[in-house]
Structures are given as structure tokens and as C-alpha cells.
Specification:
The chain has 419 residues and is an alpha+beta fold. The chain is built from eight helices and 26 strands. It has two domains: 94 residues, Fumarylacetoacetase, N-terminal domain (SH3 type barrels, Roll); 209 residues, Fumarylacetoacetase-like, C-terminal domain (Fumarylacetoacetate hydrolase, domain 2, Alpha-Beta Complex).
Length: 419
């Protein structure tokens, strides 16, 4: 029997000591090679386990899925089977991959592909995408810059997870270039608007969760039920054109300043893999309404970093933050999203909002890091960054670790800005 979170478990597949993908992780994604069309896979060490081939061997039968689920070009059909089925598949894969197991070793050349030989693709067809605004440190920083330093948070912020419905069609997988957007801006508050490329292009360090299918329209998901409707998480860069956004967002919120592109990492890490890294969240004051209350540890200790890499230049880490800094957790976000009866579907994505920590060095956007452009970042090549320049690659990485437990990583999400 596969013990999901046994820290001593090892695999017959060689896994480097510093790998993001030990047997305790087993994240899901979509890959292809020069010889294999798009299909589901699972990361293990420096390899990808080909689920099409594993299913063809009959080793995933009887778990609540169909073999066709593992021949699909997205994970939607698999995720749509629900938590019980996806958990059973992951546990079966763990049994097949653990040291001493023999059913797959004779087929190693058939079922294993080196990660260096694969192309990763968007793992899900995102039907609907919601972006939250759930880091108190980020919201407070923005409020200080644009509103009132003494009353930085808006009156509703500590009473509910604020969010908006974003654009699903422009979510892309890591490695996909991002074109600098154009739109209306108003550089001078006393002058009329002008049209042109954004001058204040920014990243936003976020994590996103992918959902199983939910309840029928008109029914809601409680915080106690939320984990059963969350498949897993990925790293997420919600690119933002600050100057376009500033001019357009009143009164209806983000639009063209956000919809031009969001980047996600290719591997989705399941909630089960992250169980050892659950932590308590902050005390929520004032008291929240009963439907947002939850029991137990609802936050996750995931270390996050952001690096800016100039074209043909040396990169610089500009942010070290942690997912545990969130004020509102995923259970609360999903409960609030559905409390009005809004239905969710398999493959829907919900992003955390920018993840900023309490001190300089842990801010999750250039808007905060450069403090609205007044404190430029000095790069190793002597240049400076207030915001992101053409040719820059923004790389985000994340992993969970603690003494006595394996490193559970997310890989990275990269995006290069084109002019």
C-alpha cells in the first residue's frame, strides 16, 4: 500500500536529492515528445511517467477512470472524475513506483521519458478563471501607495475574499512569451488619455488552484467541503499592466490591464502531496461571517521566489515570499465564490492574488518592490528595474520543505516579455 506522506518512501526510479519531484509528490501535467502526441504524465525525479502507456497496460483499471481519460490532451476529463478517483490513481502510481515494485520496471523504457526530452503544455483547458486579492500585506501596500496610508484597506477587505472574474483564454503554460500589451493610459492626470504600449509592465507572484466539478447551480460549497473540490495547485504569474489598469479600473475593476496574459507552471501538485505542510493562518479580526469560518490548518507553507533574468544577462532574485502569508485561504475563497450558488466545473482555476510578505524583500510585485517606481532595483549588469523591460524573463519557483519531510516542488513558471 502506498503511504502518501511517508517521508522514508523511495522509488525504483532514480530521484536526485534536490529534486522537486520525489515519489511523495507525483504532480500531474500534459506533455509531448517528438514521438508521443500530447498526453497526461506524472513527474518523478528527472523523468515523466507516461500515463497513456501505464493505462494501456491495464494498471489503472478499476479506479473510477476510463483509459480514454489518459489519452486526452488535457487533464479535464481525469480531474472531472472527482477527488476519490484522482486520489486512487495517484496512490496506485505510488504503489507502482515505490522501491521493490516490479510491475512497471520491465516496461521502464516504454513508460518513462526524460524530462529533458519533453515539451510541456497547458495542463487544463481553463473554462473559468477567478483572481482573488487575498494577501493583506499586498493590499495594504497598494492602499498606502494609491489611497490613504492610515486607512489602506478598503472597508470590505477583512470581511470577505475580494476577487474578480478574469480571462481564461489568455492563460498560457510556462515558457510561452508574453507580448507587451497596448492600451489607453493617462500619464498626466491633467491631460487626456493616450494610446500606446504599457510602460509599467509588472509580474504578480501568485498560486492558483484547479477545481474538480462542483455542485449544481444554486448550491454552495462550505469551507468544510472545499478540499474535496480542489484538485491541486500550480505557480501562477498574473501579469499586470499597471498604467493601463490605473486608468481603466474605476468603476468596474481590472480589464485590459490584466487580460493580455497569465502564466502557469506545467505541473499541478495535489493537495494530498501538500498535507504535511499545512499551517495555521492569521487571526482574522474583525470576526468573519459564519460561512467563512473553518476548522484546522487551512494555509500552506510553500516558499516562493521570483527572479528577473535580462536577455543575455545575469538574473537577480527580487522576491522571497511564502504562500502561508495569505489572509484568506483556499477554503474560504471557494466557499465565498459559491455562496451565491455559482457553480464550478472541472478545470476551473482560481488564483490567490499577489502573495506579499510583511517586509521588504518579500513583496510579490514590482509595484511594491520599486515602490511605484521610486526605488529602482539595481541589476548585476548595472541596469535598473522599476518595472519589467522587453527581453526580460520572469521566473517564479516554489517548493515546500521542512526537517524530516521531502521537498515537494512545483518546478518553475517562466515568461519572457516581447516588445
Amino acid at each position: 500500500m502506498f503511504e502518501v506522506n511517508n517521508p522514508d518512501l523511495t522509488s525504483w526510479v532514480d530521484v536526485p536529492a534536490d529534486s522537486d519531484f520525489p515519489i511523495q509528490n507525483l504532480p500531474f501535467g500534459i506533455f509531448s515528445t517528438s514521438e508521443r502526441v500530447l498526453r497526461p504524465g506524472v513527474a518523478i525525479g528527472d523523468h515523466v511517467l507516461d500515463l497513456t502507456e501505464v493505462a494501456a497496460l491495464g494498471l489503472l483499471d478499476g479506479l473510477g477512470c476510463e483509459r480514454l481519460d489518459f489519452e486526452a490532451t488535457t487533464l479535464n476529463a481525469f480531474i472531472g472524475r472527482g477527488k476519490e478517483a484522482t486520489r486512487a490513481v495517484r496512490n496506485r502510481l505510488g504503489e507502482l513506483l515505490q522501491a521493490g515494485a516490479t510491475k512497471l520496471t520491465v516496461h521502464a523504457n516504454r513508460v518513462l521519458v526524460k524530462q529533458s526530452d519533453v515539451t510541456m503544455h497547458l495542463p487544463v483547458q481553463v473554462g473559468d478563471y477567478t483572481d482573488f486579492y487575498s494577501s493583506e500585506d499586498h493590499a495594504r501596500n497598494v492602499g498606502k501607495m494609491f489611497r490613504d496610508p492610515e486607512n489602506a484597506l478598503l472597508p470590505n477587505w477583512k470581511h470577505m475574499p475580494v476577487g474578480y472574474h478574469g480571462r481564461a483564454s489568455s492563460i498560457v503554460v510556462s515558457g510561452t512569451p508574453i507580448r507587451r500589451p497596448s492600451g489607453q493610459t493617462r500619464p498626466d492626470d491633467s491631460a487626456p488619455p493616450v494610446f500606446g504600449p504599457s510602460r509599467l509592465l509588472d509580474f504578480e507572484l501568485e498560486m492558483a488552484f484547479v477545481t474538480h466539478g462542483g455542485k449544481p447551480l444554486g448550491e454552495c460549497i462550505s469551507t468544510a467541503e472545499a478540499d474535496d473540490f480542489i484538485f491541486g495547485l500550480a505557480l501562477f504569474n498574473d501579469w499586470s499592466a499597471r498604467d493601463i489598469q490605473k486608468w481603466e479600473y474605476v468603476p468596474l475593476g481590472p480589464f485590459l490591464g490584466k487580460s493580455f496574459g497569465s502564466s502557469m507552471s506545467p505541473w499541478i501538485v495535489t493537495l494530498d502531496a501538500l498535507t504535511p505542510y499545512r499551517v495555521s493562518g492569521p487571526d482574522q479580526d474583525p470576526a468573519i461571517l459564519p460561512y467563512l469560518e473553518y476548522e484546522g490548518q487551512g494555509h500552506y507553507d510553500v516558499e516562493l521566489e521570483v527572479e528577473i533574468i535580462p536577455e543575455n544577462g545575469q538574473g537577480l532574485t527580487v522576491c522571497c515570499s511564502n504562500f502561508k502569508h495569505m489572509y484568506w485561504n483556499m477554503r474560504q475563497q471557494l466557499a465565498h465564490h459559491t455562496v451565491n450558488g455559482c457553480n464550478i466545473n472541472a478545470g476551473d482555476m482560481m488564483a490567490s492574488g499577489t502573495i506579499s510578505g510583511p517586509e521588504k524583500g518579500s513583496f510579490g510585485s514590482m509595484l511594491e518592490i520599486s515602490w511605484r517606481g521610486t526605488q529602482p532595483v539595481q541589476m548585476p549588469d548595472g541596469s535598473e528595474r522599476k518595472f519589467i523591460l522587453n527581453g526580460d524573463t520572469v521566473r517564479m519557483t516554489g517548493f515546500a520543505s521542512k526537517p524530516g519531510a521531502p521537498r515537494i516542488g512545483f518546478g518553475s513558471v517562466d515568461g519572457k516579455v516581447l516588445g
